[in-house]
């Protein structure tokens, strides 16, 4: 690697090693449950649903493609 990148890579490795002290990590460690109520369920909200800007609470979400 070029010398300017060596320091960045070393810094990235140090940050990653420090982050590993917070583990072990698990996909079942989630603050919110998916709709089925089982921590082992996978849930991925669609990226094209956005809060309604005309409603104070943003509900219901609106389908907005391409955003």
UniProtKB/TrEMBL annotation:
Pfam families for the chain: Alginate_lyase
MF terms (GO), sorted A to Z: lyase activity
All residue ranges annotated as the Alginate lyase domain in the record: 26-67
Keywords (A to Z) from UniProt: Lyase, Signal
Protein name: Alginate lyase domain-containing protein
Taxonomy of the source species: Eukaryota, Ichthyosporea, Ichthyophonida, Sphaeroforma
């Amino acid at each position: 690697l070029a010398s300017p990148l060596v320091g960045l890579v070393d810094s990235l490795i140090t940050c990653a090693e420090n982050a590993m002290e917070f583990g072990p990590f698990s996909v079942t460690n989630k603050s919110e449950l998916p709709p089925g109520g089982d921590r082992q369920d996978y849930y991925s909200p669609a990226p094209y649903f956005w809060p309604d800007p005309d409603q104070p609470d943003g509900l219901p979400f609106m389908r907005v493609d391409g955003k």
